[in-house]
Amino acid sequence: MKQLLHFGGPVFDSGFRERERDALSATLTLDDAKPLFLEFQGAGVTFPQSLRTEPWGARTFIVRDPDGNPIAFAGDKG
What is the pLDDT of residues 7-39, one digit of tens each? Predict the structure, then answer.
């Protein structure tokens, strides 16, 4: 069973995001990332990384949550 956890305070120390700019807070896997990407795009979401096909074939994109945490979505190439 997969589960999301909620933390009421910072998970990383105060300087972590400055040191590790590419660190993700979470990666969620989908059958196909494109429909969700298009839905977010239609809602005006900005993306630190737009939808792209990775060298290993997965389609991925990244958004930031309201606290600025980067969250990746990944799916099959489709």
Answer: 676 666 667 666 666 677 788 899 999 999 999
